[in-house]
Design a protein that fits this description.
Length: 487
Amino acid sequence: MVRKARIVATIGPSVDSEPVLRSLIQAGVDVARLNFSHGTHEEHLERIRLLRALSKEFDRPVTILQDLQGPKMRVGDLPDGGIPLKAGQVVLLAPTDSDGAEPPSGGGSIRIPMDVPQLARSVRPGNRVLLDDGQLELQVTEVRGDVVEARVMLGGLLKSHKGVNLPGASLDIPAFTEKDRLDLEFGLKHGIDVLAISFVRQPQDIEVVRHAIREIDPNKLDTPIIAKIERPEALDHLHEIIHAADGVMVARGDLAVETSPALVPIIQKRLIELAHRHAKIVITATQMLDSMIHNPRPTRAEASDVANAIFDGTDAVMLSGETASGEYPVEAVTMMDSIIREAEANADKWGHGIQFPDEVPQEDSISIARAAKELAEDRNVANVALFTQTGRTAVLMSKARPKVPILAFTPEERTYRRLGLLWGVKAFLVPYASSVESMLSHVEVGIAASTDLQPGQQIVFISGYPVGERRLPNFALLYTLGDTGSS
């Protein structure tokens, strides 16, 4: 059985060698995530080169997803070994350009450097300050100039550069930083396929990035943008964000810290449903097989988590530390592949029962995709095949969720590489076609080379017409393989 949901794997030190990357792709990785919160441009360039070479070797697209860092809020430099914080203790939070952490002297408070833009202007007494993914909790008691006084509510050992979250605070911080722009210039220059942006709170954050792409390289303006949903503010603008972006990522780590772990499963289901209704891509991420960073097998709860994301209808599931820095990266991908296959084999019984997208304009393309799905299932055909230049036809057909495989043929290499992210789509890079007959010829060749279908079997074929124009599908054809005269 062909797996339909995609596997996204973060590339990092654990998988940097060519043999391990090859094994990762063989195990089932469809999308390689390059996390620009870590690593140098030189390191990422070498990864891009390796991934392109392996994609060519395996004759299938390995989509490269560039994940921009965004405005990271972190603790500054602390003494070696960190500093212990005890419940009830008062601490001072100050900008990193002031003095570093100081031990209490004569009853004074510890001074903790914070790399958080405009911290003192963003919080007020009563606000919570969460450190190290919520492992430590402070409560603001007073703001004096650029220094914030806070009381330790939940103590522990605080080390340098741990993350900072400010639930309920009004943050006036740009989502797109100067570092992001430099990283974006690098990514576009070296041909990344998809872009993920952090800290999205409103649709304008996406438009800022599109404007930057237009300034850097107008020819790359069609680069798909995935909005990472990790801030509570984004939840108030989900429809607008999903409309503005090409897809969303359910970034469950920061969501759990910024809201509540109890809310994350509900937010996940809501995001997956909304993305599908808008015919947009959705990736479910964070701690899916987290225990496999150090163990060769996942917990039963993690296996259920992956399966339930598949039942919810996610397009892709993502591995982070499991592959980037884990001890068992290949095993993690193999396990995820196995869980997905089992879930998909039982999706008819336990799946969410996704309906056709209903919040996209009811144009010809939507009707054609719906007709292709219904025709495929009514006539029990073997595949839905499509011809696409931009990839949008493949997205629509993927979101229609036909029960048969989707074969996407494109003459555009950039489009071909992006197709690796789409649920249920097998991509083919073919020459340009100038007629329906030549398109069907490419389909025949691709099917003969990569499937066991035989002449006489039927497929549903969709495309735009006139041939060669960049337009959404406007015709569907029930085609019998080997019957070239029927077109």
